[in-house]
């Protein structure tokens, strides 16, 4: 039980407002405040300055002034933790939070089935030419169906870049559902762990060279931003497809457009863009062999409820002084514990005793 009321703020809406209410009403020790971007900034600044927790929106909906970066942390001296909407946390400056003793948490795994299914759906649609033939039927009176002859994905090879919660489930669907050969590259996992997750460990170059489908499931970080460019697309088979349901910016959009214009690859399925939603005149939208979605792979009705329940339950843990289960920056824990005790009036469970 908290020594004083814990204050949690969020802007506009949760992924599932009903699920948030259902979970958080079981924790009367937490005061939840909805903020609105249209309200005077002074009003929102006052609420943020007093807040102990900030449930941040995804990049598509988020007002850039409320990105969780150093300026916001300076305006929010009582902030103890920031939670992302889903598994991605690229709207949060983790290093800045760590320096301030602010915990960063996510909802990893909460929308994994939705994203994995969507990734495989894009593979199917691209390979079977479902989307391009649908467009033809809508715009042409007499469609030559032989032009749209596609390929099965059965027993093809999929290369998965990042074998976390979503990548692992994508591998399982491809392996068990379509008898595909599953290759994976993940620099954060050992070869034995990759095998345990149902994939053959390969180098990054081998992944791009051998695969009939590349499916991206790594986070967007300084290391991965812009890491897939013309070099990687040039390694791919001309019959291979590129799928990204992770984050925009991991692949270089201009270089992907160049690869498509040069027929270096067969097509792309993109749920994510660097700027979301992409402008109607975005170069990639001019290609008939590109399927574009507005970052909705993880937005099934079930997953919206799931990630909200994950987040709300984790907030109850955090604001009652317990270590959260999906902590991104554990190195912030010692300073966080000291700040928590100073702000909330009691030490969290398992408080670190290391000197500052």
Automatic annotation (TrEMBL):
GO process annotations (BP): amino acid biosynthetic process
Molecular function, one GO term: oxidoreductase activity, acting on the CH-OH group of donors, NAD or NADP as acceptor
Pfam families assigned to the protein according to its UniProt record, in alphabetical order: 2-Hacid_dh (PF00389), 2-Hacid_dh_C (PF02826)
Domain D-isomer specific 2-hydroxyacid dehydrogenase NAD-binding as annotated: residue spans: 120-297
Domain of life: Bacteria
Entries under InterPro entries matching the protein: D-2-hydroxyacid_DH (IPR050857), D-isomer_2_OHA_DH_cat_dom (IPR006139), D-isomer_DH_CS1 (IPR029752), D-isomer_DH_NAD-bd (IPR006140), NAD(P)-bd_dom_sf (IPR036291)
Keywords: Amino-acid biosynthesis, NAD, Oxidoreductase
Keyword Oxidoreductase listed: yes
Cited SUPFAM superfamilies: Formate/glycerate dehydrogenase catalytic domain-like, NAD(P)-binding Rossmann-fold domains
Domain D-isomer specific 2-hydroxyacid dehydrogenase catalytic stretches: 69-329
PANTHER family reported for this sequence: D-ISOMER SPECIFIC 2-HYDROXYACID DEHYDROGENASE FAMILY PROTEIN (AFU_ORTHOLOGUE AFUA_6G10090)
Sequence similarity: Belongs to the D-isomer specific 2-hydroxyacid dehydrogenase family.
Protein name: 3-phosphoglycerate dehydrogenase
Originating species: Paracoccus litorisediminis
